[in-house]
Write a structure and sequence with these properties.
This protein is of the alpha+beta class. It is built from 11 helices and 8 strands. One of its GO terms (biological process) is retrotransposition.
Length: 315
């Protein structure tokens, strides 16, 4: 009984080969080869139909599952496409807002530029008006002399004109017979402030501008002008703005005097001095600073050579 069974196993029929290849895929496959061999043709056909039916049911079930998964994927894809569309819409809105913002920023920048230019023009006009007012006041004061440090009260007995007539011959003998004419002389301010211990200034209005210039030149040359032994100062009578601009040069003037550069202040507030045999003039400190920083190196080198030569070959 054993030998025929081996022979059947080695010489399997096509039906057995089909069933053996699909038995793992079928949930209810008959696993006993002996049972299959014992089946009649009708039973074998029924078993085959049963297996095919089960396979069809499994395939249908798998197809349903696959269809559901595909439907889920389709829905997910639709949601994703919808989300992408929304994102694109939002991105478009953001781009629109950005473009609008850029336009507004550009408009604001243009407006700021206009305001800046307008402000600069206004500032220039204000400066020009201030300069015109300053020039007007300086022109009104053009013939005036400004005398400082005359003691209070001396004019009560002698009068302002007599004080001035004492100052001229006492300090400038070459001008004593000139015959200067005075139009007006007064203290400034008119009323004495008891809270200010300093003497009020004296303003002398000359009949001729040329007379004022001669006196100022003589005062610069003498340097030490006095009234009854008291040091006084004689200067042009200028507007407050011009005086402030000239005061900004005082420290530099003192330094240049110490270096014998012969500094002078020209109207309204221009610094002039002699450098390397040439007259240099500057209207503001920045330009003077630039000149000081950009002096040719050869000038300093030449000056050192001149000093060395002077020491080597004394006269």
């Amino acid at each position: 009984a054993t030998l025929p069974q081996k022979r059947l196993t080695n010489n399997a029929s096509p039906q057995e080969t089909f069933l053996s290849s699909d038995k793992e895929n079928s949930p209810k496959t008959v696993n006993n080869e002996t049972d299959l061999c014992s089946l009649t043709d009708l039973e074998f056909k029924r078993e085959t139909v049963k297996i095919l039916k089960e396979l069809r049911e499994d395939m249908n079930s798998n197809a349903d599952t696959l269809r559901k998964e595909l439907e889920n994927i389709r829905r997910s894809q639709e949601k994703l496409e919808h989300s992408v569309a929304e994102m694109q819409t939002e991105l478009g809105a953001v781009k629109t807002r950005m473009n609008n913002a850029e336009e507004r920023i550009s408009d604001m920048e243009d407006r700021i530029m206009e305001i800046t230019q307008s402000g600069q023009q206004t500032e220039n006009r204000i400066k020009k008006l201030e300069s015109n007012i300053r020039d007007l006041w300086d022109n009104i004061k053009r013939a005036n002399l400004h005398i400082i440090e005359i003691p209070e009260g001396v004019e009560k007995d002698k009068g302002m004109e007599n004080i001035f007539e004492e100052i001229i011959p006492g300090n400038f003998p070459n001008l004593k017979d000139t015959g200067f004419k005075i139009q007006e002389a007064q203290r400034a301010p008119n009323k004495l402030n008891p809270n200010r211990p300093t003497q009020r200034h004296i303003i002398i209005k000359m009949a001729k501008v040329s007379d004022k210039e001669r006196i100022l030149k003589a005062a610069r040359e003498k340097q030490n002008v006095t009234y009854k032994g008291i040091p006084i100062r004689i200067s042009p009578d200028l507007s407050t703005e011009t005086l402030q601009a000239r005061r900004e040069w005082h420290d530099i003037l003192n330094v240049m005097k110490g270096k014998n550069l012969q500094p002078r202040l020209l109207y309204p507030a221009k610094l002039s001095f002699r450098f390397e045999g040439k007259i240099k003039s500057f209207t503001d400190k920045q330009k003077l600073r630039e000149f000081s920083n950009t002096k040719p190196a050869g000038e300093n080198k030449r000056r050192r050579k001149e000093k060395t030569a002077a020491k080597t070959n004394p006269k």
